[in-house]
Specification:
disordered N terminus, mainly alpha, 819 residues
């Protein structure tokens, strides 16, 4: 007897070392498999082990077949096995009253049949093709309806456990197991068109039966096919006349079949062609359920409402003149009326979803909850629905509670999509992007998607303005969204994690929420994502877009909050890696915020943190971003580097003439930048670096080095009494930005003193550290007179002190200060 394989062992690699694989006698292999097939046909009490052993023997026998005749023989035996499987899968567990602690015996056998078929279907296209042609395929499609699904209905969709050692198959396990098998079979099949035709034949035969049980099995099978392969499922639905025929008689069917069909239509709306057909042929049926009160069944209402929401949102967005039924109308009045009707219907649908979620009677009905959450996820794209949700405290608390309690990934995903829609800020085009789109529109080369985007820029809904989104985010944080987000993020899929990171980034954007979010543990959620730390080996890898959202959220926290208070001391060094990684982003906002955060970290003076920035290549990335086209990125990069200059290894790097002549050249150039804050940071860095003799020599070696420093100390300093007002006016223009329309004189003077102080500090260092030769060059270029004028006109004690120290140094070197 071949050793027993666990019923829950889904892996085929264990079959490679199976004793059967070492057999060389084809006759012996054939006899053993024939014995198994005979037992399968005649045994009254079939054990799951027999199914497992037989499938393993067939796999091993085919692997060891070394001739076409041998392979043909094994294929024949596989065909016999499929026929036996068809019989076993057609049995109704309810027909056998026997059950024990290991579960219903027939269920265990059927579970093992599905697992064995999955193992045999792995990368074996001829076997899969034979499966679709056999009687086993319709038996597989009908199995979920054959088995009582009371357990699945109560607990919602389940994923079969694959933990080795758990041998009991429950009723609720079979439907997801069938879905997994179908997905693999559809993927492996050689002819998808033939599979679609075969599936259509089976489904239509069942749906057209005069027996309720068979019709129910047909609709359930159609739902499984749509769920596992959209192309094949929608191919069946799009068969000419099918939807019309279904709508002619669906109202006569029991509500459980209507629910199945409504959910099928909802899933199929993901396909554009099918969605158009559903809108055209099924809208009246769906509306009668949701808007006209044709039923009181909450589950049916929810399923139909989700389908209507998808139709309404997708088709009304396709074109301004497209209505709910997807048919174009060139009449402006007609399209306007359709648009108004759509808005009203969407509001009614959203209210229905919120009612379903707030109703305590639906707390244990996963089907109703899932439909309501999915519908609200689609509807909350609309600004009016966002306003409805955020204004309904009871609804929000119901959503939060559901997020904290549910273990269902589909529910988690629906909830996080709702939260993402509520918190997302409208993406604005830059002036250059808007101008480019307008030019393309004028030239007639604008794609339809870009045309809609351009139109949306002109027709922005005030309910989606930045101020309103900020208020929504503040309200969500104050109401207590964080516990739900913590629960949703636990062992989440990558798709959920991606939306979760976006939601957290959005919530952190208003500065008012940041302190409260830190208290509620937002850092514990963000840090593992930004560091790409997975919660378990089975979890999907964290993508770069997910990591970027989390890193950007952390950067926002570092900008406005003291890192020593926001993050525990041991976690501060962990921030460096994601922030440096974010510098490589192509998004200029990410670059800017990461630079600002690193500036804040660098200002702490923590040697460990500064060392990690250097080791991670942060200095080189900051230098690269000094060449950015965006003024704010250039400014932030220069400010971040200015803080790094105080770290000895960076100071030594910039003081090395062999490595840093070009670096000093760039800093000097930025000392002459138009932007005041960039100029202040660059001149501050130069003031620190000029305490090095080598840097002094590099400054003087630059063609405009001395000229640029003289422009700093000459800022606003008149050469005579007559041009005092003119000099001050020009200096104010230099230190105030174009965006500052109102000039504050005190602010302007303060900025001038900041630049003059840095320039005077550089001159002091050039004289006292650079030596007499440099002092003579300064004197020959009028430096003495400029320093003297600065002493006479500046009201800043620090500025006057540096200027006097420079002149005193020149005097001590024997340089005459007067003509």
């Amino acid at each position: 007897m071949i050793p027993y394989l666990s019923p829950c062992s889904w892996h085929t690699h264990s079959l490679i070392t199976h004793p059967t694989s070492t057999m060389s006698n084809t006759t012996e292999q054939k006899k053993m498999i024939d014995d198994y097939l005979q037992q399968l046909q005649t045994a009254h009490d079939i054990q799951p082990e027999l199914i497992s052993d037989l499938s393993a023997a067939l796999i091993a026998s085919f692997a060891s077949a070394n001739s076409e005749d041998s392979k043909t023989l094994v294929r024949t035996q596989q065909g016999e096995f499929l026929e036996r499987c068809a019989v076993l899968l057609s049995k109704d567990p309810s027909a056998d009253g026997s059950s024990n602690e290991k579960g219903d015996p027939i269920l265990q056998v059927q579970g093992m049949v599905l697992k064995s078929l999955l193992r045999m279907a792995m990368n074996d296209t001829p076997f899969v093709d034979a499966l679709f042609e056999s009687r086993a395929y319709p038996a597989i499609l009908r199995l979920p309806s054959t088995v009582s699904t009371s357990t699945a209905t109560a607990s919602g969709p389940q994923t079969p456990s694959v933990t080795v050692g758990q041998k009991v198959t429950r009723p609720g396990d079979l439907k997801p197991m069938v879905a997994i098998l179908l997905a693999k079979a559809f993927e492996t099949a050689s002819n998808k068109d033939h599979v679609r035709n075969r599936s259509t034949e089976i489904v239509l035969a069942d749906i057209g039966s005069d027996k309720l049980k068979i019709r129910s099995a047909g609709f359930t099978a159609l739902g499984l096919i749509v769920q596992t392969d959209m192309a094949i499922g929608c191919g069946i639905l799009n068969k000419e006349g099918l939807l019309v025929e279904l709508m002619d008689c669906i109202e006569l069917e029991p509500e459980n079949i209507q629910i199945i069909l409504a959910e099928i239509l909802s899933m199929a709306c993901a396909d554009a062609k099918t969605r158009t057909a559903v809108a055209l042929h099924c809208s009246e049926f769906l509306k009668s359920i949701v808007l006209k009160g044709a039923t009181k069944n909450q589950h049916l209402k929810g399923a139909a409402a989700v389908a209507l929401t998808k139709i309404s949102l997708a088709d009304s967005r396709k074109d301004p003149s497209t209505g709910l039924n997807g048919i174009e109308d060139t009449s402006n009045d007609r399209s306007s009326k359709l648009s108004e009707n759509n808005v009203d219907e969407e509001a009614q649908l959203a209210k229905l979803f919120s009612t379903l979620l707030k109703d305590d009677r639906n707390d244990n009905n996963a089907g109703i909850q899932l439909n309501a959450v999915e519908g609200l996820a689609y509807a909350s794209i609309q600004p009016a629905v966002k306003h409805l949700i955020i204004s309904d405290r009871a609804l929000l608390l119901s959503l939060f509670q559901l997020g904290e309690e549910t273990k269902s990934n589909p529910l988690k995903y629906g909830l996080i999509v709702i939260f993402n829609n509520l918190t997302t800020f409208r993406k604005r085009l830059s002036p250059e992007q808007e101008q480019m789109l307008k030019l393309k529109k004028m030239a007639g080369t604008l794609p339809k998607s870009d045309s809609k985007r351009l139109q949306s820029q002109d027709d922005d809904d005030p309910l989606d303005s930045e101020a309103v989104v900020n208020q929504r985010n503040i309200a969500l944080v104050k109401l207590g969204i964080m516990p739900a987000l913590h629960a949703i993020g636990n062992q989440a899929s990558e798709t959920i994690r991606q939306s979760l990171a976006q939601v957290l980034r959005n919530l952190i954007t208003p500065t008012e929420t940041r302190g409260l979010l830190v208290q509620q543990g937002v850092v514990r959620l963000l840090m593992p994502i930004s560091l790409q730390q997975q919660q378990g080996q089975q979890q999907q890898p964290i993508t770069e877009s997910t990591r970027a959202s989390a890193a950007q959220a952390l950067a926002k926290l570092c900008i406005t909050l003291d890192p020593r208070l926001t993050f525990k001391n041991q976690r501060i060094p962990e921030l460096v890696k994601p922030l440096i990684w974010l510098l490589e982003s192509t998004d200029q906002l990410c670059q800017f915020e990461s630079l600002m955060a690193l500036t804040n970290l660098g200002s702490m003076g923590d040697v460990q943190v500064l060392g990690l920035i250097v080791q991670g290549g942060g200095v080189e990335k900051m230098e690269n971003l000094q060449f950015s086209e965006h003024i704010l990125v250039r400014r932030a990069a220069t400010e971040a580097l200015c803080n790094m200059i105080f770290f000895e290894p960076v100071f030594e790097l910039y003081s090395d003439p062999k490595k840093s002549a070009s670096k000093i050249h760039l800093i000097l150039a930025l000392c002459d930048a138009d932007d005041f804050m960039t100029r202040r940071a660059a001149s501050g860095a130069l003031a620190v670096l000029s305490t090095s003799q080598d840097v002094c020599n590099m400054i003087m070696a630059q063609e405009r080095g001395l000229e640029i420093l003289r422009s700093l100390i000459a800022l606003g300093v008149p050469t005579s009494n007559a041009d005092a007002d003119e000099a001050e006016a020009k200096a104010i223009e230099d230190v105030m930005s174009d965006q500052e329309t109102v000039v504050d004189h005190a602010v302007a003077v303060g900025r001038m003193d900041e630049l003059r102080h840095r320039g005077a500090e550089c001159f002091k260092n050039l004289v006292t550290i650079g030596g007499k030769e440099i002092s003579q060059k300064i004197a020959s270029h009028g430096g003495i007179q400029q320093l003297a004028n600065l002493i006479q006109t500046s009201s800043s004690e620090a500025v006057r002190y540096c200027a006097m120290e420079a002149l005193k140094g020149m005097s001590d070197q024997g340089i005459k200060l007067t003509a």
